[in-house]
Amino acid sequence: MATAAFYSFSALLLISLTLPSNACLPADRAALLTFKSTLIERHLGIFRTWRGTDCCRRWYGVSCDPETHRVADINLRGESEDPIFEKANRTGYMIGQISPAVCRLTRLSSLIIADWKGISGPIPSCITSLPFLRILDLVGNKFTGPIPADIGRLSHLTVLNVADNQISGYIPRSLTNLSSLMHLDIRSNQISGTIPRDFGKLRMLSRALLSKNKLTGAIPASISYIYRLSDLDLSLNQLSGPIPAALGKMAVLATLNLDGNKMSGQIPTTLINSGISILNLSRNALEGYIPDVFGPRSYFTVLDLSYNNLRGRIPKSISAATFVGHLDVSHNHLCGPIPVGAPFDHLEASSFTYNDCLCGKPLRAC
């Protein structure tokens, strides 16, 4: 027995000495192979590169930390300019599910499984136990079920992208604990419920893209606390109530899309003299007048107020704006003459149609 144990120990020692010093750990390799076993990709052959003992070298989409030799990144994109895609002359298509074995890669920093169109099933809840995860990008698949409830445990997460899937459930309350989050994209899913009231805790956020879901309730005023936020897209939901005036006082907000909701009340004057350059408030239930406060700070590449219940005249102060590119006030209850000069001299009739009694170029004469 002692002799057998000696030879067994010697064999293991010999194997460890012959493995390259920078080879991946056998446990990481085993986790990757289990991860691979639940996915099927028939056209590109990317998983045919996943062979040999060293998963840190030439395994497509896998990279390791140069110091620890642990798997740090899985980067599998179904749309890429990589030669393997050019040779096949097609984008990728993959089916299957994400195995919980991926959670055994405890040094994982980024998990990108994007645009494969056919990957389904839930997002493994154990994802929230990966302490070093910075990027979780699962865009463009068919994932179902909720965003993991404990997503807020990922204290280093900077990117969360689950757009263009079939995710349901609610926005987890713990999500607002992601103090490092910079990019949030949950567009085009089936997420319902309200936006957390303390959404403003995400102080590092620069993009919040929540459009085309089933979100209800009011826009939390706390969003205005997010100093770095430049792009806020809440369009095509069922949000209601007034537009918080504080949104117009945000330092770097450049794009505000609220179209296709049930927003009511008046247009806050703060939105007109702000740094917002793309403002889309169309297809809501906004009332009152268009604020007559345009000035040098008003610079709109897009200003869309169509399909609301606005009344009164088009304010002459729009001519005082530094720039107005696309303007649409159609499908309201506006009346009176359309102002002359810029920006009205380059706009088409479709920007003004279906109002009560607008007149003047480019419509009929007053």
Features:
4-stranded mixed beta sheet; mainly beta; disordered N terminus; 366 residues; 12-stranded mixed beta sheet; 3 helices
Radius of gyration: 27 Å
Q: Number of DSSP helices? A: 3
* C-alpha geometry: elongated
Low-confidence stretches: 1-19
Helical/strand content category: mainly beta
Mean pLDDT, to the nearest integer, reads 93
Short account of what is shown:
By secondary structure, the protein is mainly beta.
Would you write up a description of this structure?
With 366 residues, this protein is mostly beta strands. Helices cover 10% and strands 23% of the residues. The strands form four sheets. The protein has a twelve-stranded mixed beta sheet, with no helix packed on it. Strands 1-4-6-8 form a four-stranded mixed beta sheet. A four-stranded parallel beta sheet has the order 11-13-15-17, with no helix packed on it. Strand 2 and strand 3 form a beta hairpin. The protein is elongated, with a radius of gyration of 27 Å. The N and C termini lie far apart (107 Å). Mean pLDDT is 93; it is low at 1-19.
